[in-house]
């Protein structure tokens, strides 16, 4: 198969983790006779430095014309005080919006060999859930502003029935293929948007009689994720709550560097690890490339390359079994570099 992939390394550790991901994808391409054509483009702080804004029209057009976008990570403290629309993160947000990738899928899978979570081991044994995070609406994208000479600020949180339905359908369908449980996480005791989410999802769930639907308020869900994480199968939630819960979920898995995501729309899709740009680690060859590599695996699945996806996941698991790991998930005396992890996975695929 021939695929055009837009590659946005982004900031901080982005270039290092992406390099390993491309290496792994190339080993898949060689093994299965695929032709992956990459086009590297800029977004985030590097784009601000070069063009003066966090994403260019050209970058957006390239992404819209490709079969998928692979995204590293963005963010740099030197731009923290830029005006609205001019922060590195705005490049990512604009891209998500324009590509209309409204359904962000964040699987949370544990590797029993890694034991860096502060949570008791026995609570983690059966953890296996996936977060369906709405990605192009809500408070992230509502009108924002200041008044009273900048001393008052607002962010609107708006959701339409249609925005809820389209991700609701994807999450309910996912539940059917899993353990048939879906938890809607919201704040319906306070927020009107949350009440709309409940109404819409409750109604839709009637068409899925085998799926058990329950509801948790976000505050309680945050607590349950630590106290009883294996109660979750599919979590469906809005943009902001999904952002918060997904970072929290990485405490269960030992490292945020392990977690991938797929951002899916009706026509376009983007694949991005859930972590940030980790500026302090940039250039040190210590960042965990697995979240990015596994995002690449989700891209392969999206392309219909199921065997290819599986072999990448197997290779990742094997690298962890063999303790070829970056220092976020193993003791620093025994750790490997970003590069070594990538090389191991590349070789594993080649030798299968
Ligand atoms: C994420 C990130 C982004 C988000 C940032 C970088 C804008 O935290 O993908 O979870 O908040 O969506
Ligand atoms: Mn986040």
Number of strands: 12
N-to-C SSE string, H for helix and E for strand: EHEHHEHEHEEEHEHEHEHEEHHH
CATH class of the largest domain: Alpha Beta
| Fold-level CATH name of the largest domain | Isopropylmalate Dehydrogenase
Annotation keywords:
single chain, 352 residues, alpha/beta, Isopropylmalate Dehydrogenase, 2 domains, ten-stranded mixed β-sheet, 12 helices, 42% helix, binds 3-isopropylmalic acid, binds manganese (II) ion
Give the structure's gist in a few sentences:
By secondary structure, this protein is of the alpha/beta class.
Structure description:
- With 352 residues, this protein is α/β, with parallel strands linked by helices.
- It has 2 domains: 1-101 and 260-352, Isopropylmalate Dehydrogenase (3-Layer(aba) Sandwich), CATH 3.40.718.10; 117-253, Isopropylmalate Dehydrogenase (3-Layer(aba) Sandwich), CATH 3.40.718.10.
- Helix content is 42%, strand content 19%.
- The protein has helices at 14-32, 45-51, 57-65, 88-99, 121-124, 161-177, 192-205, 218-227, 239-252, 290-302, 306-321, 338-351; strands at residues 2-10, 35-41, 68-73, 103-109, 128-134, 144-147, 152-155, 181-186, 212-217, 234-237, 262-264, 269-271.
- The strands form 2 sheets. The protein has a 10-stranded mixed beta sheet with strand order 2-1-3-12-11-4-5-10-8-9, sandwiched between helices. A two-stranded antiparallel sheet has the order 6-7.
- Helix 1 crosses helix 10, helix 6 (161-177) packs across helix 7 (192-205) and helix 8 runs parallel beside helix 9 (239-252).
- Residues 243, 247, 274 line the site of manganese (II) ion (MN).
- Manganese (II) ion (MN) binds next to helix 9.
């Amino acid at each position: 198969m021939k695929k055009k992939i837009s590659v946005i390394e982004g900031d901080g550790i982005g270039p290092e983790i992406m390099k390993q991901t491309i290496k792994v994808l190339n080993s898949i391409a060689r093994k299965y006779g695929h032709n992956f054509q990459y086009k590297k483009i800029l977004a985030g702080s590097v784009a601000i430095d070069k063009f003066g804004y966090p994403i260019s029209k050209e970058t957006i057009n390239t992404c819209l014309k490709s079969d998928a976008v692979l995204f590293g990570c963005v963010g740099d403290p030197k731009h923290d005080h830029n005006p609205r629309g001019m922060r590195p993160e705005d490049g990512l947000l604009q891209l998500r919006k324009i590509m209309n990738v409204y359904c962000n899928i964040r699987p949370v899978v544990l590797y029993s060999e890694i034991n860096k979570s502060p949570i008791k081991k026995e609570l983690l044994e059966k953890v296996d859930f996936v977060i369906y995070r709405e990605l192009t609406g809500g408070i992230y994208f509502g009108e924002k502003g200041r008044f009273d000479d900048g001393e008052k600020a607002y962010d609107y949180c708006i959701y339409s029935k249609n925005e809820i339905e389209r991700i609701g359908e994807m999450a309910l369908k996912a539940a059917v293929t899993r353990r048939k449980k879906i938890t809607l996480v919201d704040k319906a005791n306070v927020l009107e948007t949350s009440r709309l989410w409940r109404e819409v999802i409750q109604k839709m769930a009637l068409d899925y009689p085998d799926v058990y639907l329950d509801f948790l308020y976000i505050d309680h869900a945050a607590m349950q994720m630590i106290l009883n994480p294996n109660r979750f199968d599919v979590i469906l939630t809005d943009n902001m709550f999904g952002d918060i819960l997904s970072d929290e979920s990485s405490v269960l898995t030992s490292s945020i560097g392990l977690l991938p995501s797929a951002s899916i729309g009706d026509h376009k899709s983007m694949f991005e690890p859930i972590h940030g740009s980790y500026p302090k680690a940039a250039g040190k060859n210590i960042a965990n490339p697995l979240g990015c590599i596994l995002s690449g695996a989700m891209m392969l699945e999206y392309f219909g390359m199921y065997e290819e996806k599986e072999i990448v996941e197997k290779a990742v698991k094997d690298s962890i079994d063999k303790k070829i790991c970056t220092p976020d998930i193993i003791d620093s005396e025994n750790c490997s570099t970003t590069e070594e992890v990538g090389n191991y996975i590349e070789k594993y695929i080649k030798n299968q």
